[in-house]
Every structure is written in C-alpha cells, then in structure tokens.
Structure to design on (216 residues):
C-alpha cells in the first residue's frame, strides 16, 4: 500500500451522524472487526470485545436510556441553581451524545481484563499497580482497535461516529440493559451505517509543528 493512499484514507474519514436506511451486512461487520483485532496491544493482551447491535428498536432503547439520564442530571443541576447549564446540557450536548439514533448498527466497544506475563510474574508479586492502572491499560489497547475498525469501515464506504456520551451519562444503565459483565469496561459506542451525506469540508487540524517536538 502506498503512503499517499493511506494518507487519503485517514484524511477523508469523517464522523457521520446521518445514516441512510440501507442495512449493514453481517459480513461487513465481520470484516471490520477482523481488522480491529490486528491492532497492537500491551504485551499482545488483545483487551477488546465488541457487541454489534443490529436491532433498531434496541438502538432506540439505548437512546432513550441516555436521554433519561440527561434529564435526571439536568433536573439536579436546576436544583443547584445551574439552569443555564442544564438547558445547554439538553439542547446542545444531548443531541450530540445521542447522534447514533438513526444508525442501523451500534457497536459497543468493550475493554477486557488486562493480563500479561509481566503482570503475573512481576507486577502483581511486587504489588505494583492499582486496579485503575490495569483498567487503563486495557482501555488504551481497546482504543487502538477501534481506530482500526473505523478506518476499515471507511475503506468499505461505510460511515462511523465514535461516541462516549452514552457511557459518560448512562454507563450502568447501558451495562444492565446489555447484560455486560462487571469485569468488562465500556470504552465507547460507535454508530455504523451507510452515509446519507458526503461531507466535503475538511475539518481544521492543528499543524504538525504545533504538536511535534524533536529532541536531538
């Protein structure tokens, strides 16, 4: 693969929030996850799992669950005298956090417990590292797989949108609804489908010189 082809793939990917009615095939989802699993991971721990929700009623349920929590948080904010912030939460952040509502597929991206020979043989005996540290290690590797997944979807002409809103607002409710075990972390959800729009505008990015430091 030529570098320019890869750069074009990366630079042309967009987060799409408007999907057509066309369904996504099981074969396409399988291919996308196949690419996801080749992401690098800490000591090849492969701390990722995916739930592909293809039932639109269930996707709507997750939207409803998210909105319920939004309204609960907004109501509590009003009681604290934060009426303006509560209004912004519902009118601005709410639609943004639930932009998966018309997607034909919702991928729930999980992180699995981190295990490695270094942890088993060195870190645990030394009592080094807390549970939160190992959970973060799992989350990092899971995130690498998600980027693979979204690029693979884009290469097939499919659109994605990564969202952390449902996790931020309603993680426990989402966990209960999907019967996700407690030892699994919920990283994010990714809306997947055929794009109803083709955005042409390139989103602004920081220049390389702003984010890269050379040390010689």
């Amino acid at each position: 693969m030529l570098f320019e082809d890869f750069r074009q793939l990366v630079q042309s990917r967009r987060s799409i929030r408007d999907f057509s009615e066309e369904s996504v095939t099981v074969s396409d989802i399988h291919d996308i996850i196949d690419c996801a699993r080749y992401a690098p991971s800490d000591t090849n721990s492969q701390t990722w799992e995916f739930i592909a929700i293809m039932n639109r009623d269930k996707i709507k349920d997750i939207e409803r669950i998210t909105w319920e929590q939004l309204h609960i948080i907004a109501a509590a904010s009003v009681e604290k005298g934060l009426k303006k912030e509560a209004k912004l939460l519902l009118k601005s952040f709410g639609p943004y956090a639930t932009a998966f509502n018309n997607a034909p597929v919702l991928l729930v991206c999980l992180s699995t417990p981190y295990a490695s020979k270094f942890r088993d043989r060195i870190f645990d005996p030394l009592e080094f590292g807390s549970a939160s540290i190992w959970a973060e290690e799992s989350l990092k590797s899971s995130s690498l797989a998600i980027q693979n997944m979204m690029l693979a979807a884009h290469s097939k002409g499919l659109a994605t949108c990564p969202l952390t809103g449902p996790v931020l607002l309603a993680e426990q409710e989402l966990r209960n609804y999907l019967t996700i075990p407690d030892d699994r972390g919920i990283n994010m959800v990714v809306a997947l489908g055929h794009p109803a729009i083709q955005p042409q505008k390139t989103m602004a990015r920081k220049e390389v010189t702003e984010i890269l430091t050379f040390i010689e």
